[in-house]
Amino acid sequence: TLALTLVGLVPLVTMRVFAEERARGTDELLATTLLTPNQIVAGKMIAAYAFIALALGLSFVYPATSIVRAGLGLPHLLAVYLGLFGLGIALTSVGLVCSAFTSSQLVAAISAYAVAFVLYDFRWMAQFLPEAAAQAIDPLSMHLRFGAFAEGLVRGSDLAYFASYVLVAFALCRLAHDQARVR
Asked: Rounded distance, CA 147 to CA 106, Å?
């Protein structure tokens, strides 16, 4: 349930990151500083990721305390929270990209919700696609990658999957930043 809460809340966190500056014109002011475009984009992304990490860290305190006091599966809880962090990073990346390509916070939030729900679980598309295509895209679902962490399994391929969202988001946000400067 915390995973679905992330899907619902992260677009609200990310909708302003780039869109608000573009709407107010302060992105032009930021471009006149000594910061490079890579530093501007990376700074905004790191701040958003840090906020999500802080929120997850605060939500970790109560279950960790309960599990430690009871002497139960702390490694399993750590795996779950590592998965939640990966999922949060991926969803934040989606929201940042949606925010980078618009000047409207509302458009950024709605598009981030739409993209996040599609990427979260592709099984709903199985009825519309040929079986081979449905089987090919199903492993790309965030839900399946997070599911392994929820079972207490930490796999490098799942960590790389979530990390790839950061790299793609950086490239797309940088592209949006460059397009905004051309206008």
From this structure: 30
Quote the CA–CA distance of 90 and 16 in Å, as a whole number: 17
Transcribe 78-128 into DSSP letters: HHHHHHHHHHHHHHHHHHHHHHHT-S-HHHHHHHHHHHHHHHH--GGGGGT
Rounded to whole angstroms, how far apart are CA atoms 67 and 95?
A: 33
Distance in angstroms (rounded) separating the CA atoms of residues 145 and 112:
19
Instruction: Decide if 146 contacts 4 (C-beta within 8 A).
Output: no
Buried b (16+ CB within 10 A) or exposed e, 3-38: beebbeebbebbbbbbbbbbeeeebeeeeeeeeeee
pLDDT digits (tens, 9 = 90+) for 28-41: 788 788 889 899 99
DSSP three-state, residue 183: coil
The 10s digit of each residue's pLDDT in 57-102 is 988 887 877 777 776 678 888 898 999 999 999 999 999 999 999 9
pTM (predicted TM-score)? 0.87
Residue 24 amino acid letter: R
CA dist list (Å): 182 to 21, 117, 178: 16, 32, 6
